[in-house]
Design goal:
heterodimer; A: about 280 residues; mainly alpha; two-stranded antiparallel sheet; 7 helices; about 70% helix; globular; disordered N terminus; B: about 180 residues; 3 helices; rod-shaped
């Protein structure tokens, strides 16, 4: 998935080239990084509270999560109906398949709120990328992935330091079973991997997946519109191809959205588990 | 990839550098949703799960008690059946004993009756024998006297001595028969 921006970026000049020979032909306008920095709606110019449509979208998603989960758990029935059953299924999936599976019941209970939050926040914010009329993931601007990654980072370091500060640091920086002289190489690698790369990869994996997903979909659909409306004639055949690809990638984006939410939650849990482990 | 983005960033904002407002509008959703799950949704969920577990446990308990009840009923039934069987055996035994007693009683009664019949018969025989004996004695006496008077040519019919002789003779005869009877026995 991380490789796709290259091909996407490569396609844009190719298409531009294809249209240049006809001098008065309309110019193809592909997706741009500016899509992620739309104009402000409220508090324009305010460094901390300037709100554009993506920031607004985040608040809408929060409202949606509140409505869904508040209503879904308001009158809990012992024999759940469809709506409550769906909400319960989601919550139980995180609890059983991710948290308790890796951390066990006791530790799992402590970290369940954080990991549930991460899972559903990432999931809902990813899925807006394929919602018609919104068409952009709320996670495609770095703030959200970064905040979640920092939360995960604080959680696993706090978990390790609180349980056994020395064993945690020793396991992390001086992994047992490695010959002592190799610590010269291993310890810096482990340090960078644990305290730098983990949050960075968590952030970038999610951010890039969402950015690329958006760029791909915009590329396919704007190309379709371009072929069909601006060029017409035989180009309509090409528009069928790009439309098919766009549709296929829309479904693919659903998969990516769910998968990224799962991966983010799972990796956070794994990091906490490693921090709590007595031996690696 | 990064190069592409960095090139793009020269004229546009760098997507890898978060703006302050971006952080603010990420922190607010995160904190709100965390509080929602932490303070509201997950406790509710936990409560429901506990209640459900309690209900299931209650159901299991109920089933167990029902099973125990059924077991008790079965045991009671078996006990009753055994009791009934024992009673029947007892009654049968009693009937058999009673039957045997009745049979013995009847046997005894029959024996008594038979004995009585025998005794009566013997008494009758004895009486008849006595009668015959008495008759015979009188007859034999006169016959013998007739015979003897015939032999000696004179009538001894009224003679007291002759009567005494005959009586003695008969007594001897009787004694002989009695002793011979005893010997035969």
């Amino acid at each position: 998935m991380l490789e796709t921006p290259l091909s996407a970026a490569a396609l844009i000049p190719a298409l531009a080239f294809a249209t240049t020979p006809a001098t008065d032909a309309p110019e193809f306008k592909g997706p741009s990084i500016l899509d992620f920095f739309p104009p402000a709606i409220f508090f324009e110019g305010n460094e901390f509270f300037e709100m554009n449509r993506i920031m607004l979208l985040r608040l809408v998603i929060v409202a949606l999560i509140f409505i869904l989960f508040w209503l879904g758990t308001r009158k809990m029935q012992l024999v759940p109906g469809r709506f409550q059953g769906t909400i319960e299924m989601g919550l139980e999936f995180v609890r059983k398949s991710i948290v308790e599976d890796l951390l066990g019941q006791k530790d799992g209970k402590r970290f369940l709120p954080l990991i549930t939050t991460i899972f559903f926040l990432v999931l809902f914010m990813n899925l807006t990328g394929i919602v018609p009329g919104i068409n952009i993931s709320a996670n495609s601007v770095i703030g959200m992935p970064l905040v979640l990654a920092v939360a995960a980072y604080i959680a696993f370091i706090w978990a390790g330091l609180r349980k056994h500060p020395w064993a945690f640091l020793r396991n992390a920086l001086f992994p047992p079973g490695v010959p002592p002289f190799l610590y010269i190489i291993v310890t810096p690698i482990e340090f960078v991997s644990m305290f730098v790369l983990r949050p960075v990869t968590l952030t970038l994996r999610l951010l890039m997946n969402m950015i690329v997903g958006h760029l791909l979909l915009v590329l396919f659909f704007s190309a379709t519109a371009f072929f069909m409306v601006e060029l017409g004639g035989w180009w309509i055949a090409a528009s069928a191809v790009t439309l098919a690809f766009g549709t296929a990638f829309t479904f693919f984006e659903i998969l990516v959205s769910v998968l990224q939410a799962y991966v983010f939650a799972l990796l956070t849990t794994v990091y906490i588990q490693l921090a709590l482990a007595d031996e690696h | 990839m990064l190069a592409e983005l960095i090139i793009a960033a020269e004229e546009t904002p760098n997507p890898l550098l978060p703006a302050w407002y971006d952080i603010v509008y990420s922190l607010i959703p995160f904190i709100l949703v965390l509080l929602l799950f932490w303070r509201v949704v997950l406790p509710r969920m936990q409560k429901t799960l506990d209640e459900r577990a309690a209900l299931i446990e209650g159901g299991i308990e109920k089933a167990e008690s029902a099973q125990a009840e059924a077991k008790a009923a079965l045991e009671q039934y078996n006990a009753l059946l055994a009791e009934g069987r024992a009673e029947a055996a007892k009654i049968r035994e009693q009937a058999r004993t009673e039957g045997n007693a009745i049979l013995a009683e009847l046997k005894e009664a029959a024996q008594v009756e038979a004995a009585r019949v025998t005794a009566t018969a013997q008494q009758q025989i004895e009486a008849e024998r006595q009668a015959a004996l008495v008759a015979l004695r009188a007859e034999v006496g006169s016959l013998a006297l007739d015979l003897a008077s015939g032999v000696i040519g004179e009538s001894l019919a009224d003679d007291k001595r002759a009567t005494a002789l005959v009586d003695r003779f008969l007594a001897d005869l009787e004694n002989d028969t009695a002793s011979s009877k005893k010997a035969a026995k």
